[in-house]
Amino acid sequence: MRMHGRRSEKLGKPMSARSRPGPKPAAHPCSACRFGADSIWQPVVDAQRGVLARSLQRRPLSADETLFVQGGPADAIYCLSAGLIALRSYRPDGGSALVRLVYPGEILGFRSFLARDPHQTEARALVPSRVCRVATREAQQIVAASPETLGRIARRCAEELGRLRNWQSAAVKKGNRYRLARLIVQLIEGAEPEAGGRLRLPLSRQDMAAALGIEAETVTRLIGRLRDEGVLAISGRWVEPDSIERLAGVT
Amino acid sequence: MRMHGRRSEKLGKPMSARSRPGPKPAAHPCSACRFGADSIWQPVVDAQRGVLARSLQRRPLSADETLFVQGGPADAIYCLSAGLIALRSYRPDGGSALVRLVYPGEILGFRSFLARDPHQTEARALVPSRVCRVATREAQQIVAASPETLGRIARRCAEELGRLRNWQSAAVKKGNRYRLARLIVQLIEGAEPEAGGRLRLPLSRQDMAAALGIEAETVTRLIGRLRDEGVLAISGRWVEPDSIERLAGVT
DNA sequence: CGAGGCGTTGATTTGACTCAAATACCGTGG
DNA sequence: CCACGGTATTTGAGTCAAATCAACGCCTCG
Prior knowledge:
The first copy, chain A, is α+β, with helices and mostly antiparallel strands. Chain A has 8 helices and 9 strands.
């Protein structure tokens, strides 16, 4: 059971501080955020709070809107505060892989930021989302002034690397049926229940296939099998929430 | 054509500086190393050079010796100056995957260092090797005093993440024959030619299988096929160097 | 000599891909 | 509301690559 990111953290400080432009060190801009307590910008020194407050801008994303493109310049680092974003990598041969799902509280663009590379992936919202953006230039300035921030970003990177290695090593030998089951569990754990208590998968079969490195037809067949076995109650993108436990037991 | 790490860099400053304990800021301990110019410890401030010089210790590893174990405490960060090291991840079910090959000039243990986690992998020398070790405690002290060092470590981490994502996305759809060919190319590019100009693969068939996430029998058969096609001149672990170009052309 | 590790080979089975076609789904405009 | 076109999904049949199971040769080491 991977705990995606830091959803389900405590709620941080109340909103009020944000609206009053104090004469003293300004309130931390992230304090208004649900994930503020864990923000990578949390340990910013007072002197830089102004810079952070000025450069940090909230931005809503509609479903399917793209935040940055593969090969594009790494001009900012983002923090996802709501929604769900997919990182995709397009191969020269035309195929694509779904490299990562970004959940609220996690950050995007840190790899490019740290490596000073262009983006290797495309980031696109799967559902309506909201990000906070800090331009690379200001981020570098802030990091220079409070190195602890760099440590936090690096830590996210290290965690991601660990996750990926785990996945790589664990998933290979387990068969696609198991891997698909895990993916769906992850997806429905991260989804908000909608009217009728049902859950809507944020990924198409295509996307699930791209996430697992298999073909869409295979996903269909595997889902069919899971349904036949009574493990998964699914219709189109709609899933009965009580499937989770049974699904989690799939070997 | 992946350039592994920083082999083939310029040779750095001459050895002489190391032996004289100057009254002025001591010579940089890494200046003696072939990879010194790119050392993650390069930007260490003068005040910390003493700490670095004291805590950095060279350690030879014989083939098959293990540097750290999976689940063990992250008590140091290492830089490989010669040889070849394999990072393996053992799964609860007994299987194992070869997660990474570390070439000279690259560093080990940085993931655990950055994430402040125990090691997720085991590091074991494939051939006689040599590492330089800096204990976590001193590394933290140095990093605190010269944050640029943290930036360098983080950068290595980001690069590794990028490599892994690339591999994940690119390799899947290309077939195991192609992937094996690439692996062998990488291995012989990294190997020192021995007597007779032949090259010795540092990996067993088992290990190659573990690196590609396939079975050892399959590796045997694929190698057989490559040989039949005249692409690879191989006998046991011995490879004719001129196979490289032909191998590199495998689709 | 026997045991064990590694590498090879063969026979068989399984699972996923491919190609192709039928069907369901969805937003649009009438 | 419905028909429409386009996309996504499902289903089927045939093919192929790799896993699996089993056996054997080779070599080293005790």
